Structures are given as C-alpha cells and as structure tokens.
Amino acid sequence: MKTYLEGEEEEEALDAFEFLAMAAAAELGHWEIVQQMATMTGAAGVRGLGAAGPPVLSRRRRQAP
Predict the structure, then answer these.
(1) Distance (Å, whole) CA 59 – CA 20
(2) Cβ(50)–Cβ(35) below 8 Å
(3) What confidence score (pLDDT) does residue 31 get?
(4) What are the sequence ranges of the domains in the chain?
(5) What is the mean pLDDT of each run of 10 residues along the chain (65 residues)?
(6) Exposure of 50 by Cβ count < 10 A (0-12 exposed, 13-18 middle, 19+ buried)?
(7) What pLDDT score does 50 carry?
C-alpha cells in the first residue's frame, strides 16, 4: 500500500487511496454475488465458496493495519 500512497503530488496519493477503497468495496460485492449464486443454484461447490469467502474477508480486514 505504501507504493500506492507515495505519489509525487498529494492529489496522486488521494487518487490512489480512493482506488484502493473502491477495490475493497468491490471485493465485498463480488462475495455477495457468489453467496446469491449459491442460494440460487444449490451447487455444493458454490455453497462452500460462498460460505468461506466472507469470513476470510472479515478476518483480513480485522488484521489490516
């Protein structure tokens, strides 16, 4: 993350931070889609993936500095 935030100008650092925030939000959205697919299809593999993703994401967010 340090690489993204060390821009030449303050505006570049702000742009980088906004990009990272949007990427994190999009990741959560993708997991919600997987969970919805699991509900609709009933496929065991998709259910397993849909159940595993959000706890991993939550744990990673808690561990972030």
Answers:
(1) 18
(2) yes
(3) 81
(4) 2-63
(5) 62 79 80 84 82 69 63
(6) buried
(7) 76
